[in-house]
Specification:
By secondary structure, the protein is α+β, with helices and mostly antiparallel strands. It contains 25 helices and 19 strands. It has 4 domains: about 130 residues, Beta-Lactamase; about 110 residues, PAS domain (Beta-Lactamase, 2-Layer Sandwich), CATH 3.30.450; about 140 residues, Alpha-Beta Plaits; about 170 residues, Hypothetical protein af1432, CATH 1.10.3210.10.
């Protein structure tokens, strides 16, 4: 007979009745061990009605079952309940522990003792009404939870946190504070804060007063000045933002200080960038108009006389933007900004004050030096080349020499001198730009000069065949020379491509008449040819480009250039195609008469020029 059966058989009926009716929970259990006599589980052999009630499980569901197989409503407060039961069942060590129901409403004292090796008895007594114990348990649990929450918060925040006692010695330090100061918590705890948290003023370099001392003395919160640097253990300087607050006891006494600080390097960089952009031109990096106006007000004092103002205008910026695009216009402005920087003194104030306007402020400087700057700027500009663009500057200056003179009038006078300079040299510069573009096209494309000269000759011959006057013939010849000036923006490999052009490539080439128009219209001497050049790829049937004009809507000179251009292209020697004979080219012209070309002009060209 098993010892458990013997134990049960020896109990009297009275014992059974007493246990069943007892107001305490009763359970008889057996410990389960592995081969090394180490407890791995335990099973329930017998329980009373009160234990069923407390555990929330019927005896039929519990008796004969291992603890690991059932789920009880009792929450174990001990760290290792199985070890306690093992010590009792195997070594006879009795014990007591506190347990509660899962809903937290009731508490029980559990007594554990053994009458026989490998067996132990549990007696559960309701102690819910013992308020002092219950409240103490709640308070302990609440305190534990609060400490865990504080610990989790402290270790997860992105700011450095250091706490001290009432003497200013470090008691708490989170990982961010360790990283920023380069002190470990183990090294720092117990040390005076000023040994670990060393701060100084950014500009003066002076060591700052320890914020803990201020808080401990005053009891008030404290914030560090904005320009504060933290000196790490290795000597690294880190910009920080910081605040210190007192830790109060229940009676209001200061018992310590907590410091919260963060690395504000990125914030300071962003602020510097914002400040830079608010006073600087984003394209050139020079000061902007806002800064210049502030500087004029600040420097307009007696001790800065004579006070010279130089104004500069970029000749041909609109021509550059129209002809070559705004990217090239921006490059021109940046080139001019570099020229001005190099020709001025380090402390001179240089600003971009408009689209194509710059200004220089020269305190304590007379107009003799301004004239030197003007000559330097013009010489440097004339020696600078930017693709087909001529870099040219109009410069004017004026100096304030008397206190009563108005600086705004000085600026107006400088502008006036600059505009006179622009009128004098700007027109020449634009004409030179056209000549430079034509020269660069001829250098860029070997056959282009021959092509434009022959087109011009054919245009003159057609003009005479149509009995145009000498002025019209001169204009026609000139337009023939200029008709492809917009090709300066077309890449060499695209214009000389032997295979079929893609849609995008053809669209890019088709823009050259519009670019030619933009280049020419801004130059007085050539503006009259802009309209003709724009339309020399229109078709007689209205299917040409860029505007789809048809018949007599197309300017006469454009219709003439169209035929001369086509004939020259068909008969010219090109690396990527075989030239047509005169007869083949004429046949092609007649084939396109009335669609691509004006039939009357073809007739005049074939009968009076080519025969």
């Amino acid at each position: 007979m098993k010892s458990n059966d013997l134990f049960r058989n020896n109990k009297s009926d009275l014992d059974k009745k007493i246990l069943e009716g007892a107001p305490i929970g009763y359970a008889n259990c057996r410990i389960i061990c592995d081969e090394s006599e180490n407890a791995v589980d335990f099973e329930f052999l017998d329980i009373n009605h009160k234990f069923e009630e407390i555990a929330g499980v019927l005896s039929s569901e519990l008796i004969g079952k291992k603890n690991s197989e059932v789920s009880l409503q009792i929450v174990n407060s001990a760290d290792n309940l199985l070890k306690i039961y093992e010590g009792c069942a195997i070594h006879g060590v009795s014990n007591e522990l506190q347990q509660r129901t899962r809903d937290g409403k009731r508490w029980y004292k559990t007594s554990v003792y053994s009458l026989q090796k490998y067996y132990f008895i549990l007696l559960l007594t309701d102690i819910t009404d013992e308020k002092d114990i219950t409240e103490r348990k709640k308070a302990e649990e609440q305190l534990f939870n609060e400490k865990e929450q504080f610990k989790t918060t402290l270790f997860s925040v992105g700011d450095g946190v250091i706490a001290t006692d009432e003497f200013g010695n470090i008691t708490v330090m989170n990982p961010v504070a360790e990283k920023l100061t380069e002190w470990s918590k183990e090294e720092a705890v117990g040390k005076p804060l000023q040994e670990v948290f060393i701060i100084k003023e950014e500009h003066s370099g002076e060591i700052c007063v320890n914020p803990v001392d201020n808080v401990l003395k005053s009891g008030f919160n404290f914030e560090l000045p904005y320009n504060t640097l933290l000196l790490s253990k290795s000597g690294k300087e880190i910009p920080i933002e910081d605040s210190a607050a007192s830790i109060k006891s229940r009676n209001g006494n200061t018992t310590g200080v907590v410091i919260v600080f963060r690395d504000c390097t990125e914030k300071k960089e962003r602020l510097k960038e914002i400040e830079f952009l608010s006073f600087h031109d984003h394209l050139t990096g020079l000061y902007n108009r806002r800064y210049l106006e502030d500087a004029v007000r600040r420097l307009d004092t007696l001790r800065n006389l004579p006070f010279t103002f130089i104004t500069i205008d970029v000749n041909g910026l609109k021509l550059t933007n129209d002809a070559f695009g705004h990217e090239m216009g921006d490059q021109l402005l940046k080139t001019v900004a570099d020229i001005i920087r190099k020709q001025c003194r380090k402390d001179d104030i240089i600003a971009r004050i408009g689209g194509d306007e710059f200004a220089i402020l020269l305190p304590k400087t007379d107009i003799r030096y301004a004239e030197v700057i003007k000559r330097r700027l013009k010489a440097a500009a004339s020696e600078t080349r930017l693709d087909s663009i001529i870099v040219s500057l109009a410069v004017g200056y004026e100096a304030k020499t008397k206190p009563e003179e108005d600086m705004s009038e000085i600026q107006k006078n400088a502008d006036g001198h600059m505009y006179k300079d622009k009128i004098k040299y700007g027109k020449t510069m634009r004409s030179q730009t056209i000549e430079t573009v034509l020269r660069n096209i001829n250098l860029k494309y070997d056959s282009e000069q021959i092509h434009t000269e022959r087109v011009s000759e054919y245009c003159e011959a057609i003009g005479r065949a149509l009995h145009l006057n000498e002025r019209e013939i001169f204009d026609l010849k000139t337009a023939g020379i200029l008709h492809d000036i917009g090709k300066i923006t077309v890449p060499f490999e695209l214009l000389n491509k032997s295979g079929k052009l893609s849609e995008d490539e053809f669209s890019r080439i088709k823009r050259h008449p519009e670019i030619s128009y933009q280049i020419l219209k801004g130059v007085d001497e050539y503006a009259a040819y802009a309209e003709v050049v724009l339309h020399h790829h229109e078709r007689f049937d209205g299917l040409g480009y860029p505007k789809g004009l048809k018949g007599d809507e197309i300017p006469l000179h454009a219709r003439i250039i169209s035929i001369a251009d086509a004939y020259e292209a068909m008969t010219a020697h090109r690396a990527y195609k075989k030239p047509k004979s005169k007869e083949e080219a004429v046949a092609e012209l007649w084939k396109c008469a009335g669609t691509h070309f004006d039939p009357e002009i073809i007739r005049a060209f074939v009968e009076k020029v080519l025969n």
